[in-house]
């Protein structure tokens, strides 16, 4: 792609450095901004700068926060006896979007992965145990993706949580709602028969 | 999508206001910027602001320019007797990328479209005729997409150019190189038979 303008070239390269955005898409975005009023670009840039500058790590649960404590931890209406352990902020948001959970969270910031050299010390695990010691937590829910690394992380945490006497649970697994048995993977289907539950209407 | 941070929400909305970027992609981009050093976001924002602030309309051809005259118009090695008329900057860049053209350009900034209420007065047409009057232009090449509006624009321009005595040409049309005849559309294939050219080796 040949640019007759250095300014355009730099703006295209800035967009194209973001994941999943190629140079053609980047050019489309730049030309879009050029068609809009100058204030649109200014507001766009200031929203990003304010975000990058102002965002904090919630000192309780490590969620992204505008203050020292995130909106969820600060919300008095939430059940403070429940803590849901998640890998990252995206998983936290996915659970929030269901509207089914009213407890607190704890964001690990990753999962244990020996291959990638990520051990327990690299994750927000110590702060989880601090919370269990200090707060009135009764149950820790493991909402970690069922991959090998995820299972390892859940196993490690549940072992370490045992002495504390806090209840440990994991999100239910099985065939998706609306899913077709025929197309469910063998492992999920097999386990969902073994782990069958009493039928209730 | 529920955000527990206003700063994140605003940054996601900023990205999602761009064409072709949904809220999920926007969130991915924001989280990417958060993982990077602060300077990455600062450089990103300043590239966009510098571009939006500094970019000019080339006063000769209406290409995007860093100065009053774009790099192409300022390039002494280019053939100043040839002007290629294009609809927009993207088409200009596509032709530049072929490396086959060494003349100048004229960017119309659109095409005549009665449905969308775009008439000749809304396009950079007067400045094209000014150039033909003043400069040593011998040939005007119409490189406009072969749509109904495109054909209308080419017809209008060629009619208006007739009295000036300048040669008017249009880019060649036919079956694509490497294209399969079987899959060429009927109109293109039909016209490429009618407009057949002498075979040369």
Shape of chain A: globular
List SSEs of chain A in N-to-C order: HHHEEHEHEHEHEH
Distance between the termini of chain A: 62 Å
The SS-based structural class of chain A is alpha/beta
CATH architecture grouping of the largest domain in chain A: 3-Layer(aba) Sandwich
* Largest interface, C-beta within 8 A: A-B, 56 and 56 residues
What strand line-up does the widest sheet of chain A have?
4-3-5-6
The biggest sheet of chain A, with number of strands, parallel, antiparallel or mixed sense and barrel status, is:
4 strands, parallel
The oligomeric state is homodimer
| Helix percentage range of chain A | 40-55%
Number of strands of chain A: 6
The number of distinct helices of chain A, counting runs of at least 4 residues, comes to: 8
The amount of beta strand of chain A, in percent, is 5-15%
**Low-pLDDT sequence parts of chain A:** none
Total count of domains of chain A: 2
Short description:
The first copy, chain A, is α/β, with parallel strands linked by helices and 201 residues long. In chain A, helix 1 (6-16) crosses helix 2 (23-35).
Overview of the molecule:
The structure is a homodimer of 201-residue chains. Chain A is α/β, with parallel strands linked by helices. Chain A has two domains: 49 residues, Helicase, Ruva Protein, domain 3 (Orthogonal Bundle), CATH 1.10.8; 122 residues, Dna Topoisomerase Vi A Subunit, Chain: A, domain 2. Chain A is 43% helix and 13% strand. In chain A, the strands form two sheets. Chain A has a four-stranded parallel sheet. The first copy, chain A, has a two-stranded antiparallel ribbon with strand order 1-2. In chain A, helix 1 packs across helix 2. The model of chain A has no long low-confidence stretch (mean pLDDT 90). The interface between A and B is large, with 56 and 56 residues.
């Amino acid at each position: 792609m040949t640019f007759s303008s250095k300014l355009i070239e730099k703006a295209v390269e800035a967009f194209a450095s973001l994941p999943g955005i190629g140079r053609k898409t980047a050019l489309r975005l730049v030309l879009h901004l050029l068609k809009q009023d100058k204030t649109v670009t200014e507001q766009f840039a200031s929203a990003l700068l304010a975000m990058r500058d102002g965002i904090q790590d919630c000192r309780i649960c490590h969620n992204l926060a505008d203050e020292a404590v995130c909106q969820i931890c600060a919300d008095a209406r939430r059940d403070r006896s429940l803590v849901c352990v998640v890998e990252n902020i995206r998983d936290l948001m996915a659970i929030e979007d269901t509207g089914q959970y009213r407890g607190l969270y704890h964001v690990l910031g990753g999962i244990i992965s020996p291959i990638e050299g990520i051990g327990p010390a690299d994750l927000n695990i110590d702060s989880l145990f601090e919370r269990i010691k200090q707060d009135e937590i009764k149950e820790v829910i493991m909402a970690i993706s069922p991959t090998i690394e995820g299972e390892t992380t859940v196993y490690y945490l549940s072992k370490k949580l045992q002495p504390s006497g806090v209840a440990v649970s994991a999100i239910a697994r099985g065939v998706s709602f609306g899913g077709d048995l025929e197309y469910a993977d063998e492992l999920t289907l097999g386990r969902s028969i073994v782990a069958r539950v009493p039928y209730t209407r």
